[in-house]
Structures are given as C-alpha cells and as structure tokens.
Amino acid sequence: MKILVAIKRVVDYNVRVQVKSDGTGVATDGVKMSINPFDEIAIEEALRIKEKGQAEEIVVVTIGSNDAQQQLRTAMAMGADRAILVESDAHVQPLQAANTLLKVIEQEQPQLVITGKQAIDDDNNQTPQMLATLWNRPQATFVSNLEIDNGKATATREVDAGLETIEVDLPAVISTDLRLNEPRFVKLPDIMKAKRKPLDVKPMADVLGDYSDQPLEITHYEPPQPRQKGIMVDSVDALINELKERGLV
Questions:
Q1: Out of 6, 57, 143, 164, which residue is the most buried by the measure of CB atoms under 10 Å away?
Q2: What b/e readout covers 203-221, taking b as 16+ CB neighbours within 10 angstroms?
Q3: What string of DSSP letters covers 35-100?
C-alpha cells in the first residue's frame, strides 16, 4: 500500500504573528517556518502504519514556494520515503489545493491519503473534504484513532456530540485530529539521510495546467484589536447602566 501525506508550510506555532505595516499580509521575513502541526500528526500516523507492515511507501507532498523544500526534508527525516513539491509562489486557496492534490493522486495512485484537519494559518478546514469529493472516494475527518485492516479503515472521529466510529473502504481520505498521536522527534542522523532521499519539484502549471479560479479575494489584513481594560462597578444597577451605555442590553 502507498500512502500520500499532504503537508503545508506555516509560521511556527510558537511565533507571535505580526501583520505587515501596509496590511498586505503576514510578516514572514526572518520568521521560523514549520510543518503545520496537524500535518505532522498525519506524517506520524503514516509512519506507524508502515511500521506495522501495512504500507510499503510514504510519499509526502506540499504546494508552495521553493522554500517549502525544508519542510519536505523534515518530513523525510521523520521517515517518509520521498517527496513532491508542487511549486507556486502565489497564495493557494483550498479548492485549488484540492484540485492540485487530485492531479498528484492520479499520478501516484495511493491507497490512502492523510492530511491534517486544517492549517493553523488560515483555519479553513476545507481541503480534505474537497479532495475526497473531487476524487469520489470516502472520507473520515477529525480522526483521533485509526485502524487499517483488509482494505478498510476504521476511524474514530471527534464530533460535537462526542466520538463517532465509522468504517470506510480504501482508497480514502483521512484528516487527523490532535489526539491521534504524538509526532516523533527528528534525530540528526535521520536529517542527514533525508538529504539523499528523492525530492521531485514540479511547477504548478505542469501539474494543474491553467487554473485561475480564485473565488476569494483577500483585500486587507489587520491584527485583532487590543483588549480593553476592564472596569469595576459597585452594584448591579451600575453594571446594567454601563451595559446600556455600550449598547449591549
């Protein structure tokens, strides 16, 4: 079985995000970039499946600039066998990402596709669902436990009402939740070995062709408003009057 893992390069979760002074985007110069944390969980789960003898190859893929090779090398240092970079300097929206991943799937023919449930930079949580729909294959999202057996995947999903267990036929798309596993640390010898693993760079135009459908236009970025200082009131009546003055009641 071949497993395809889709990852994304994002600002590291420990970094305090700053908006550019002109409001055109997020400042990334000199900022630490990492694999999206949910995607790290996806890589780890693929590795565990392979270590059980249920998969033969793990291919990791990302869409982004040439700088994303660093995150692909990290994924291979964790244990992935090879990597594919679909190179694009433009901002990629979820539907475009799903269509691009579909083209990669058609070339690679994996039996399982694993992604993080969402990226921490935009929190869209759309690409896995769109990909499964375009691929016309089953999906299991927000997965906190996964078992592969006899061409089927049994997934425990975290839903609003608690936990839900479903079974899907492979090939399928799985998106990982936080509690699925804890990703392993990358060791220096593995980092050195990853430099010799194959990394295929493909221009977006060669993979997807002429694709110009960008339904969302981002016009401006701005940071959240600073939290206002609280006030103390002496009575319930004073509280109600204050809320009325602010138009809250």
A1: 6
A2: ebeebbeeeeeeeeeeeee
A3: E-HHHHHHHHHHHHHHHTTS-SEEEEEEEE-GGGHHHHHHHHHHT-SEEEEEE--SPPPHHHHHHH
DSSP 123: -
Spatial neighbors of 215 by CB under 8 A, at least 6 apart, are 93, 95
Going by DSSP bridges, is the β-strand pair 82-87/57-64 parallel, antiparallel, or unpaired? Answer: parallel
| Chain Cα centroid distance, residue 247 | 40
For residue 113, the cross-strand partners are 4, 173
What is the third-level CATH fold of 2-223?
Rossmann fold (3.40.50)
Residues whose CB falls within 8 Å of the CB of residue 210, separated by 6 or more in sequence, listed in order = none
Sorted by where each begins, the domain ranges of the chain are 2-223
Find the angle CA(72)-CA(73)-CA(75) to the nearest 5 degrees.
Answer: 65
Question: Could you tell me which residues are beta bridge partners of residue 201?
Answer: 85
From first to last of the 249 residues of the chain, give the pLDDT tens digit.
Answer: 999 999 999 999 998 888 888 888 888 888 899 999 999 999 999 999 999 999 999 999 999 999 999 999 999 999 999 999 999 988 888 999 999 999 999 999 999 999 999 999 888 899 999 999 999 999 999 999 999 999 999 999 998 889 999 999 999 999 999 999 999 999 999 999 999 999 999 999 899 887 666 677 888 888 888 888 888 889 999 999 989 988 888
